[in-house]
Design a protein that fits this description.
Largest sheet: none
Distance between the termini: 44 Å
Radius of gyration: 25 Å
Shape: elongated
Oligomer: single chain
Number of strands: 0
Helix content: over 70%
């Protein structure tokens, strides 16, 4: 997971990203985004399936030669490797953006612990201890029927009221 601690210096993440990025990086980012969308489209699957069918039909024509097999093996290996890198780039950006959004929600909530803003930077043992603490709090809340399970919860009552007015 990419580090988001660098965006916590006070300047906005957009300013940091634009001042740190180079034109070639920006070009790759745009290219990766376009390609990730393209290969995720149903038409890309149909094209790939068509290529495999053409390759399979051409097998008898070329006598199922080693060259015939090498073409599909090499092509699929290259395409798969490139697609993995493009999708990973897109996933890294999406994860970083999501992390920043979560960090902002934590930062603006008055009762939130700002110490959780960069949990992704902690060691596994520290994360396990924090997770255990939150799991304990959740168990206690369920046992006491607090929060979402509590019918006297103002937030639950408000949600129920909004659901009722939306249905009218």
């Amino acid at each position: 997971m990419p580090s988001s601690s660098s965006s916590r210096s006070g300047s906005s993440s957009a300013e940091s990203a634009s001042s740190d990025s180079k034109p070639s990086s920006s070009l790759f980012t745009r290219f990766a985004g376009v390609m990730a969308k393209a290969v995720g489209h149903p038409a890309a699957f149909i094209i790939a399936l068509g290529c495999v069918i053409v390759w399979a039909i051409s097998g008898p024509i070329f006598g199922f030669s080693d060259t015939w097999q090498l073409i599909i093996n090499t092509s699929t290996t290259i395409v798969t490797s490139l697609i993995v890198f493009l999708i990973q780039n897109t996933q890294n950006r999406d994860t970083a953006a999501l992390q920043l959004k979560i960090d902002e929600l934590i930062r603006v909530h008055k009762n939130a612990h700002n110490a959780v803003l960069d949990l992704e930077e902690l060691e596994e043992g520290d994360l396990a201890r924090i997770r255990d603490r939150y799991e304990h709090l959740a168990r206690q809340a369920r046992e006491n029927r607090e929060g979402i399970l509590d019918q006297d919860d103002p937030a639950a009552a408000e949600e129920q009221q909004h659901a009722g007015t939306g249905a009218r």
